[in-house]
UniProtKB/TrEMBL annotation:
Residues 682-697 have a biased composition (Pro residues). This is Uncharacterized protein. Residues 631-697 are annotated as: Disordered. It comes from the Bacteria. The chain crosses the membrane at residues 30-48, 102-121, 133-154, 190-218, 240-259, 280-298, 318-336, 343-364, 376-395. Residues 643-681 have a biased composition (Low complexity). Keywords: Membrane, Transmembrane, Transmembrane helix.
């Protein structure tokens, strides 16, 4: 009978407004508590992102994005041991949208993490049903400090967060397939594995995780249990096609990875040092992982770079307590829960195969301290949360899940509540401790200065390349750490092109260690000045040959020539079978001109093209570009208009002659002059410089 409204008038049917099911479920206290946990965990991460900033590899990604298009070679090249076309595409898009925009990078990372957090809640709800006990494994995933360092570092987040997204979606799809929802869900799981492989090499192990969970638990809801090995055989017999596809996918990915090894020499897999490998695994699985699983590490050790967060340094009592807690959880599961041991076997196998083994192969030649890097086990946190839940809780609809009745009364929930409170307290303290080690101020100030300087200089400015400071990008990154690669994205397209190929100039600029543009100088690997009593360098038939000149070439190789000339002249520089003509404007006083020296080789011939021009060579130096000692920045704050806050000055450019570097400071007088000889050049190419593999990635 329809609901009616009574009154003085005729009865009318009451209006019923249907609500979607998900809105009605928001009133469920378990779901509401889960959503509050998600919100609280995300709020805990916001200050971490606020304090973090771009670190080493992040700069490399931005520089690469502006030097390459989205080609196969760019997307599928090895970067520090990672084959990750999806991550390369993501960094390319974000960098092209806005170079070095931390707000954009942090927002994308945060939104992805929020999505993963909600999906983990949905996965636990789907697996175990509506029971308050799912809040404990949910909290473990959401707040575990092991995930925070990877979340705060863009280069690590582009691997870790999408991998976790792929993991939770693949598990959700596989769960539905195991419950008989159709084979399409098995293929969806395969698709999510492919998605994960696009972002992280570790995703190659996801099929093994799915297979282990499916055979150990997900097909057990019917109550049939003939043993794990029997279940393995039955799964392969009855559902062979999706697993064959997974196997072929793993083999194809491995073949692709090996075929791309030559795209990054020295950065891929390597034979580990046994001592280093043992120390690494002991630190990673013996200390870092267990301490983090109970809310540690509480304390953080030295930082690989001044701008990075600290590495895990858990105290010995915490490690001992962590192992005791894990042993107690294992024992409790074995006593009460049927098949609880399988969950711990799966977790141990994942830690060994997906976390320890790849880390040893990629970093086992560097140092065992890599084992203190929590990001190498960040992906295992989700596996730990799921496996812990499987070892203690029955799956939804699973019959006869327990060996004996679970103790009744207030003791079990009270113990769970105390454990959860202790875990949350330790985790918050650990996260705050990590946040205290973050310091992006130096990189932020450096990039801010560089951005202002490049915005102020004219488009025809000549900027020579030099390495960024070691505290920002480490030396083993080779030529990828040079300013023409990493800072050019902040320049206009025209200036960006000129930074990559600087031209001879008497007003060259270079970035100093603070990110300001200052006049360029030369670190003189070779320098020559006139001998005592002479005003000019000695020449034979208008030429001079220096066999001692050695150039390693590259974008940061530069030479400086001091001269006087009564009228326009030019000199030709020959080295390693290459030559370049340098125009010399007339100058009655000593003038200094800098020019790139991109050819690797030994021995240089310098010829004055018109000896009758009265050109006098006052000195020469060859080396690499550096900031002139004591030189004032070429970009200086302009006076602020009346009423304008002094904290926001508009930059102006100083390209006056006084800002040019004096010859005496560019050419080292301490170098003993050599006698000029007239001999043909005999170049000797130097060996190529390959960057060393970085332990930071």
């Amino acid at each position: 009978m329809p609901d009616t409204v009574t009154g003085g008038g005729p009865a009318r049917p009451a209006v019923r407004v249907p609500y979607p099911g998900w809105i009605r479920r928001l009133g469920d206290p378990v779901l509401a508590a889960g959503l509050l946990l998600v919100a609280a965990a995300l709020a805990l991460r916001v200050p971490v992102l606020r304090d973090a900033y771009f670190i080493e590899d992040d700069l490399l990604f931005v520089g690469d994005a502006y030097e390459h298009e989205l080609t196969f070679d760019f997307l599928f090249r090895i970067h520090k041991g990672h084959l990750m076309p999806g991550a390369m595409a993501l960094t390319w898009v974000e960098s092209r949208l806005a170079a070095y925009d931390w707000l954009l990078v942090a927002a994308v990372t945060f939104l992805l993490q929020a999505l993963v957090s909600l999906l983990v809640l949905r996965l636990l709800w789907s697996m175990f049903g509506r029971r308050p006990a799912i809040l404990l494994p949910l909290a473990i995933y959401l707040i575990c400090p092991l995930t925070i360092p990877a979340f705060s570092w863009w280069s690590a987040a582009i691997n870790a967060v999408p991998l976790q997204l792929a993991m939770v979606l693949a598990l959700s799809a596989q769960l539905r397939h195991a419950r008989g929802a159709g084979d399409r869900h098995a293929w969806r799981a395969l698709g999510w594995v492919i998605f994960g492989m696009a972002f992280s090499t570790k995703a190659v192990f996801l099929p093994l995780l799915l297979f282990a969970l499916t055979t150990a638990y997900l097909r057990r809801e019917s109550g049939r249990d003939d043993g794990w090995f029997t279940s393995l055989a039955r799964e392969l017999r009855e559902h062979w096609s999706p697993w064959l596809a997974h196997l072929l996918l793993m083999a194809g990915y491995a073949a692709l990875y090996l075929s791309r090894q030559d795209t990054a020499p020295g950065e891929g897999a390597a034979t580990p040092d046994p001592g280093v490998a043992a120390d690494l695994v002991a630190r990673l699985l013996g200390g870092t992982a267990p301490a983090g699983a109970v809310g540690g590490p509480l304390s953080w050790g030295p930082r690989p770079l001044p701008s990075t967060g600290g590495m895990a340094d858990p105290p010995t009592p915490l490690i001992a307590a962590a192992w005791a807690v894990l042993a107690a959880l294992l024992l409790a599961g074995l006593i009460y829960r049927r098949r609880a041991g399988r969950a711990w076997v799966i977790l141990a196998g994942y830690l060994l195969l997906a976390d320890a083994l790849p880390t040893v192969i990629a970093r086992g030649t560097v140092t065992g301290l890599v084992g203190a890097e929590t990001r190498y086990v960040a992906d295992a946190v989700m596996v730990f949360a799921v496996c812990l839940a499987l070892s203690l809780l029955p799956l939804r609809g699973e019959p006869d899940a327990y060996r004996r009745p679970v103790p009744a009364g207030i003791a079990p929930p009270l113990a769970a509540g105390l454990a959860a409170g202790a875990y949350l307290t330790l985790s918050v303290v650990s996260v705050q401790g990590f946040r205290d080690t973050l310091s992006g101020d130096r990189v932020r100030a450096y990039l801010g200065n560089a951005r202002a300087a490049l915005a102020a200089v004219p488009a025809d400015a000549v900027i020579f390349s030099r390495p960024l400071p070691e505290g920002i990008v480490l030396p083993w990154n080779g030529e990828r750490r040079l300013s023409h690669h990493l800072l050019a994205p902040l320049a206009s397209p025209q200036l960006r092109a000129r930074m990559r190929v600087p031209e001879p100039t008497s007003r060259g600029l270079v970035f100093d260690d603070a990110g300001r543009l200052v006049p360029v100088s030369v670190t003189a690997g070779f320098a020559q000045v006139p001998p005592p009593g002479k005003k000019c360098l000695a020449m034979v038939d208008g030429a001079v040959y220096w066999p001692e000149v050695v150039s390693f070439g590259g974008p940061d190789a530069v030479a400086g020539l001091a001269y006087t000339a009564g009228r326009p002249a030019s000199v030709t520089v020959e080295m390693a079978g290459q030559s370049a003509q340098i125009e010399l404007p007339p100058s009655a006083g000593v003038r200094l001109i800098h020019f790139p020296l991109p050819w690797p080789g030994r021995g240089m011939l310098l010829k004055v093209d018109e000896p009758s021009a009265g050109t006098c060579l006052k000195g020469f130096a060859a080396g690499t570009a550096v900031a002139a000692p004591g030189a004032a920045p070429a970009v200086t704050p302009a006076p602020a208009p009346r009423g304008t806050p002094a904290a926001s000055p508009a930059p102006s450019v100083d390209l006056s002659p006084s800002s040019a570097l004096s010859p005496s400071s560019a050419l080292s007088p301490s170098v003993t002059p050599s006698r000029a000889t007239a001999r043909p050049a005999k170049p000797s190419p130097r060996p190529s410089r390959s960057p060393r593999p970085s332990p930071s990635r």
